[in-house]
Every structure is written in structure tokens, then in C-alpha cells.
Amino acid sequence: MMSSNQEARTERNEAAAMLSADGQTYGDGARVTGPAQSCVPLTAIRNSRVLSDRVIDFGNGNRTTYRVVLPQDCPSLGFEQRFTYSTSLSQLCATDIITVLQSPGVTRGASCGLAPFQPIELPPRR
């Protein structure tokens, strides 16, 4: 059974996939700051934060964050909150595939296609 804090976090993370009717704000309060990009340079990715089975925020450690809303759920991604990818280019693209890393150890789980990288501004942390 989930605590009320866990339930609130789950609802907020699922809302992160929902874009408002005007296309400017996500359900978790993140604001769109520019057009979506098909690819981002690997040098622009320093960290990632898995919000759910469909949503990953990629950051560069500064102010730039890219939100990727996968076209469909990637099984166990939200639970495991870790994944790997491989690319022969110096960038990560919407056409690339991620693979969920499952516990224990580094067992490979589901593989899922990415989607465009949407630049966002995250809402202030509460």
C-alpha cells in the first residue's frame, strides 16, 4: 500500500506526460521554453531523471532540461528509474532506443524508443 506522499508523487509524475491544451505547460507545472528537438548533443546531457514509465527529464547540470515523453509506456522504467542507451553519434536522438536496467545487478529489461526532446523550465521545487 502506498503512503499519501507516494501517491501524490505518482500522480505528479504521471501528470508530467500531459501537455496543456495550449501546448505550453505540462501537468506537473513544467513550462515549454522552445521547439522540440530531434536530437541533443551528448555534451548537453549530464543527468537524467525518470519520472514515470513514459517521462524522462534530461539535464545538463545548468538550467537546460529536455523532457522526453515516450510514445508509450516503457515497462518497469518508472520503478527501476535507470536505463542505458547506445549511440554511434555524438548526440542522442528521438529515433534511439533505451533499455531499462533491472535489479538485482544490471539485468536488461524492456527496450523502448525515445521521442523528441522538448526544452522545458522546471517548476520551483516544493
Shape: globular
Give the number of domains: 1
Helix tally equals 2
Question: What's the rounded overall pLDDT mean?
Answer: 87
Number of strands: 10
Measured distance between first and last alpha carbons = 24 Å
How would you summarize the topology of this molecule?
Elements (H helix, E strand, L loop, with lengths): L3 H12 L15 E2 L6 E3 L5 E4 L4 E5 L5 E5 L7 H4 L2 E3 L5 E3 L3 E6 L4 E7 L4 E4 L5
Antiparallel strand pairs: 1-10, 2-7, 3-4, 4-5, 5-10, 6-8, 8-9
Protein model, in words:
The protein has helices spanning 4-15, 77-80; strands at residues 31-32, 39-41, 47-50, 55-59, 65-69, 83-85, 91-93, 97-102, 107-113, 118-121. With 126 residues, the chain is mainly beta. It has one domain (4-121). The chain has a 5-stranded antiparallel sheet with strand order 1-10-5-4-3, with no helix packed on it. Strand 8 (97-102) and strand 9 form a beta hairpin. It starts with a helix and ends in a 5-residue tail after the last strand. The model has no long low-confidence stretch (mean pLDDT 87).
Features:
126 residues, mainly beta, five-stranded antiparallel sheet, three-stranded antiparallel sheet
Briefly characterize the structure:
13% of the residues lie in helices and 33% in strands. By secondary structure, the chain is mainly beta.
